[in-house]
Amino acid sequence: QVQLVESGGGSVQAGGSLRLSCAASVSTFSRNAMGWYRQAPGMKREAVATITSAGYEEYVDAVKGRFTISRDNAANMMYLQMNNLKPEDTAVYYCNAHPLYLYDWGQGTQVTVSS
Fold first, then answer.
1. Quick check: 46 and 37 in contact, CB under 8 A?
2. Could you read off the pLDDT of 31-66 as tens digits, one per residue?
3. Most buried by CB count within 10 Å: which residue of 22, 54, 75, 88?
């Protein structure tokens, strides 16, 4: 069954913004830390932002100050607001639990940033 569905990606110019959404159809969503991951062509999948069940956020240095992760436990939703996008942010973005990938990976959502 589909557990995670990512949406909101697209093509933008450098400096633009996008808001990604993650819809989770799992009963344990609110109890687990979650993360946004990205995978660029030829690169390993990496976590860029994480959030605990209580809302504590962490970011990798590359996105600090530009990305904001949030979650709505009542709605089983997670979001990633991405501002001041850079070409190096181009990747497929996924959501999953963190640090353990507890759920089946979704299809991801493509983000393409042109210079």
1. yes
2. 999 999 999 999 999 999 999 999 999 999 999 999
3. 22
Q: At residue 12, does pLDDT exceed 90? A: yes
Dihedral pair phi/psi, residue 102, rounded to 5°: -75, -20
Q: What's the Cα-to-Cα distance from 55 to each of 35, 51, 70, rounded to whole Å?
A: 11, 6, 7
Instruction: Tell me which amino acid residue 89 is.
Output: D
- The residue assigned the tokens 């590359």 is 62
Give the helix/strand (H/E) hosting 39: strand 34-39
- Number of C-beta neighbours around residue 93 at 10 A: 26
Tokens for 97?
């639990």
What letter represents residue 5's amino acid?
A: V
What's the average model confidence in pLDDT over 57-76? 97
* Strand (E) or helix (H) holding 113: strand 109-114
Q: Is the pLDDT of residue 2 over 80?
A: no
Number of other CB atoms surrounding residue 109 within 10 Å: 22
